[in-house]
């Protein structure tokens, strides 16, 4: 089993429930959502001309469209050089791929897995994997993805974005306890004030992309 990987790095998780947690990010290549404000646009297209060696990806010093097919065995070797035990599988859109095997293998090695997804594809992973669903207005998440989520993190830029939030949440019929976050887009001050106001009114939580404020990857 191998995956198209854009980068692997250790950092601090800056968003949602695991904010502040030392984490290793495995960023997969490919995403059909294409949000205007996306800060990982370099992961959108999985083009053969950008396919390089796994060594080049491991040693990558700056963001680029370059990616490589890397096996789980190779990933496990890479992970040994770091101390974090929390793995964030992100993208791009990681759920373009079957993540059951990699999440199960990582768990047997003592890692906790988290997947960050827009929810447009079925989420195929271990039952213990934490699912962070971040719905995007231009592509509504699958109902199955909403049901599987542990937290739902809504990116907010303007007041009208809340209509999409309420629409998604109003259609959830189960009683599962999910954490609801509002996250201002691109550290926008107006969006931040909107999020703070609604989080207080609804008793939701605020996610502020800590990594951008403290200027880390």
Please describe the structure with a list of short key phrases separated by commas or semicolons.
single chain, 217 residues, alpha/beta, TIM Barrel, 9-stranded mixed beta sheet, 7 helices, 9 strands, 26% helix
Helix content: 25-40%
Main sheet specs: 9 strands, mixed
Q: What is the H/E string?
A: EEHEHEHEEHEHEHEH
Residue windows where pLDDT falls under 50 for at least 5 positions: none
Q: What is the rounded distance between the termini?
A: 27 Å
Give the helix tally.
Answer: 7
State mean pLDDT (0 to 100 scale): 95
- How many domains? The number is 1
- Specify the structural class: alpha/beta
CATH A-level architecture:
Alpha-Beta Barrel
Q: What global shape is seen? A: globular
Extended strand count: 9
- Strands of the widest sheet, in order across it, are 3-1-2-4-5-6-7-8-9
In CATH, the topology is named TIM Barrel
- Whole-angstrom Rg: 17 Å
Percent of sequence in beta strands? 15-25%
Name the CATH homologous superfamily: Aldolase class I
Identify the CATH class. Alpha Beta
Catalytic activity: 6-carboxy-5,6,7,8-tetrahydropterin + H(+) = 7-carboxy-7-carbaguanine + NH4(+)
Protein name: 7-carboxy-7-deazaguanine synthase
EC number: 4.3.99.3
Keywords: 4Fe-4S, Iron, Iron-sulfur, Lyase, Magnesium, Metal-binding, Queuosine biosynthesis, S-adenosyl-L-methionine
């Amino acid at each position: 089993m191998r995956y198209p990987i854009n980068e692997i790095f250790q950092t601090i998780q800056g968003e949602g429930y695991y904010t502040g947690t030392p984490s290793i990010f495995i960023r997969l290549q490919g995403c059909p959502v294409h949000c205007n404000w996306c800060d990982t646009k370099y992961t959108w297209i999985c083009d053969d001309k950008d396919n390089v060696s796994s060594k080049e990806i491991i040693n990558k010093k700056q963001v680029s469209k370059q990616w490589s097919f890397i096996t789980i065995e190779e990933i496990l070797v890479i992970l040994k050089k770091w101390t974090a035990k929390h793995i964030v599988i992100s993208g791009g859109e990681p759920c373009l791929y079957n993540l059951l095997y990699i999440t199960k293998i990582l768990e047997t090695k003592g890692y906790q897995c988290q997947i960050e997804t827009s929810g447009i594809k079925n989420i195929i992973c271990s039952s213990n994997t934490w699912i962070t669903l971040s719905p995007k207005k231009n592509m509504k998440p699958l109902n199955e993805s909403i049901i599987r989520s542990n937290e739902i993190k809504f990116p907010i830029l303007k007041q009208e974005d809340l209509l999409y939030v309420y629409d998604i949440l109003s259609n959830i019929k189960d009683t599962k306890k999910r954490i609801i976050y509002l996250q201002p887009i691109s550290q926008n001050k107006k969006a931040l004030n909107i999020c703070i106001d609604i989080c207080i009114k609804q008793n939701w939580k605020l996610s502020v992309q800590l990594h951008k404020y403290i200027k880390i990857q």
